[in-house]
Structure formats: C-alpha cells, structure tokens
Amino acid sequence: MELVVGIGFANVVGWAGGYGLARAFKRAWVPEYMKVPVLFALLLGVFAVSDAVLHESGLLAVTIMGIVIANSNLPSYDELRRFKEHATVLLVSGVFILLAAGLDVDALAQLDMRAVYFVVLVILVARPLTVFVSLLGWGLPWREQVLVAFTGPRGVVLVAVAGLFGDRLLGLGFADAALIGPLAFVLVAVTVVLHGFTLKPFARFLGLKGADSPGVLIVGGSAWTTAFAEALKKAEVPVLMTDPNYGNLRSARAAGIETFSGDILSEAAEHRLELVSYATIIAATSNDAYNTLVATDLAPEFGRDNVFQVMREKTDSARHQLPRTLGGANFGPQETHRGLDRLVRLGWMFRTTRLSEEFMFEQWRADRTTSALFARISPAGEIKLIRRDDEVKGTPDVRIIALCPPGDDVPGGANQPPVDS
C-alpha cells in the first residue's frame, strides 16, 4: 500500500507541478528572465516533496512534470530545453567524476574471465533480446531494429545504480557485491568504445547510413537559388530546396532537385525531413526578415558557422534595419537576393572548376576577375561556403563553384580554365 500511495502521489505532484508551471508561463505570471530559475526551483521542490512521501519516487515525479511541460506548447520551450541540455552535460559529467573518484582500483584487479563473459552476454544477448521484444508489433523495419539492438552504450545511470546497490548488498553480507561497481565501469568502457567505433560502419553495412557528404539546405525558391542548386547537384553534393510557396519550387522540381513545400520552421518539416543529412543552411528568400528568422532559429541546432543568409537590402531607415547580431553569415558576392536574381536572368551562370597542379586557384582568379566565388568542395566532397573575408586556399582536386558572367566559358578563349559544368 505504501508503494501504491507513493507512486500515485508522485504522479499527482508531477502533473500538478508541470500544469501549474505551464499555466503560469502562458499567463505571463513569471517574467521571461525568471523562467529558468523558477523552473529549476520548482523542479527541486517537486522532487523533494515526492521523495519525502516515498523514497526514490522523486525521479518519477519530475519525469511526469517534464512530460506535461513538453506537451504544453510553451513559447519558451526552446530556451528551457537548451538550459536543460547544458545542465545535463555539466551534471552528468560531474557524476561520472564523483563515481570514478570513489572506485577502488584494486577491485578492478579482482575481475576474472567471468567479467568478460558477462560483458559479451550483455552486448550480444541481453540488449538485443530486450530491444526485439520491446519492438514486437510496431512495424519498425528489421534493419533499424538490428541497429538499435546491437548499439547501446551504457552510461551514468548504470554506474550510479550499480554503486548504490553494490554498497547496500555489501552491507547485507554479500562479499561479491564489491565487484558490482568495477564490473559496471568495465561494461561502460567496453560499450562506449565498441559502439563508438563500430556504429558508422555497422550502419553502412545495414544500409542505414546517411549521405556520405553533408548536404546543403536552401530556403527559398528563385532563379538564382535553383541555378545554384543545380550546380551543387552536378557536383554530387546533396541539396534540398524548401519554400512556403509551392509555385516557387516549380523550376527546381523540373530540374530534378529534391524539394519541400512548406515552412522549414514548422513541426511538419521537423518530422518529414531528415535534417541530419544537411550540414549547411542557406536562408535565401526574397524576405530579409524571414531569412533572419530562419538563420537565427536554426543556428543553435546546426552551428552558427554553418548557417548563412543572402545579403540584406540596405535601407537608410533605422526602423527597418535588423540587428547585426541576428541572422546568418553572408556569403558569396555583395549582392542581395534581388541582385543575384537579376544577374542570373542576365545570363550569369554557376560554373564548377576543378583545380589541379597545372591550374591553381591563383591562375583561376587571374583569368576570372569578375566571377564571384560561392563555394569550395574538398576532395572528400565536403562543401564550404565562401564568406566575404575568407582566404581561399585551392589545392589539387579541390572544386570551386562561382557565378560567372556571360561568355566566361567560351571554348577556345584566352587562358580558359578547365570547366566541369
């Protein structure tokens, strides 16, 4: 009865804490700068109250609280989640250090071949069996089930629980309980190293590996973005174009470019698109404010060095100027979306040139002084957009993509470099 009452109380307290916090945030009862401290204080309070009724039930209570908050559609959810991720890294790292500091090194020497058998059984039997039974009837492809079943590095929960149970069992007179802590550390070390080095080749073997080279996500369909996407596709760089307007993607679809009609910031895009396959984001719609919103929103996820946007339109009005701290980095020539569209309509074309020992970047630049550099593709297929102040270093087998004026690729022209496309 004590267990039932404690679990029920933990559920009620967790739900009440999450619901009350979400309601307070939505009704603006808590100032924006106080939301994270209030959340943290309430989290500790819910844990302590539940734990006072039933020992170890605090974790259940705060888990229920987190589920309620995550499904409340809070406007500040992203900020709260970011704080949670930062706190998790710091706290988990600290727990590992504390647990490792309390480990008796002499206990590791007491492990024998039974420890090896145990680790092998956990990796090859216990983990796969648990996963396969749990996924029965869910319709998950068998390859994905196999990948999950044979990929399960152990972490801080195992070490913490093993240390707790080991001390208690040792106090009850079980001599072998002293080996639980060292055994847990061995299991963590083996699984982390094993799965860390084998996950990529194992996923490739199962046909579940993403693109070999990171792709480019272009937000905005227009004449120049379509032309740039075609150049990337010819260079075998994965590219995806998105635009809220279905008609703006007509040319891209005709060119065989993968497209998504919808808002890239929508929940539908998050569920339908494999964004992990794209490492570079280009916000290139005709709306500077929307480009800034996209770049600012996606920067924490993709990294600010990998989020770019087309140069904003210059304005003399202070009311229409956007802060420089928002948005992504500029790339390519000092041209706005309208200017780049005009150049493409005037006949400028994106050209891909492969450098060699006979034809280095310095010669390419001397021959094409009016061409505008956009990107550099390494021999491994990794693409890097060229910023205005970047120092371009061209080595053999490096390909560069540039926007070239009409007649720049006339066959037989003077000092004409080799052009791939």
What does this structure look like?
The chain has helices at about 1-25, 35-55, 60-70, 75-100, 105-110, 115-135, 140-150, 155-170, 180-205, 225-235, 250-255, 265-270, 290-300, 335-345, 360-365, and strands at about 215-220, 240-245, 260, 280-285, 305-310, 350-355, 370-375, 385, 400-405. With about 425 residues, the protein is an alpha/beta fold. It has three domains: about 1-100; about 105-205, no CATH class; about 215-405, Rossmann fold (3-Layer(aba) Sandwich), CATH 3.40.50.720. The strands form two sheets. It has a five-stranded parallel beta sheet. Helix 4 (about 75-100) packs across helix 8 and helix 6 packs antiparallel against helix 7 (about 140-150). The longest helix has 26 residues, at about 180-205. Residues about 410-420 have low confidence and may be disordered.
List the helices and strands and how they pair.
Blueprint: H1 2-26, H2 35-53, H3 58-70, H4 77-101, H5 105-108, H6 113-134, H7 142-149, H8 156-171, H9 180-205, E1 215-219, H10 223-234, E2 239-243, H11 250-254, E3 258-261, H12 267-272, E4 278-283, H13 288-302, E5 307-309, H14 337-345, E6 349-354, H15 361-367, E7 372-377, E8 383-385, E9 399-404
Parallel strand pairs: 1-2, 1-4, 2-3, 4-5
Antiparallel strand pairs: 6-9, 7-8, 7-9
How do you describe this structure in short?
With 421 residues, this protein is an alpha/beta fold. It is built from 15 helices and nine strands.
Q: How does the overall form come out from the CA principal axes? A: globular
Class from secondary-structure proportions? alpha/beta
CATH fold-level topology of the largest domain: Rossmann fold
Radius of gyration from the CA trace?
28 Å
* Uncertain runs: 410-419
Mean pLDDT, all residues: 85
Named at the architecture level, the CATH assignment of the largest domain is 3-Layer(aba) Sandwich
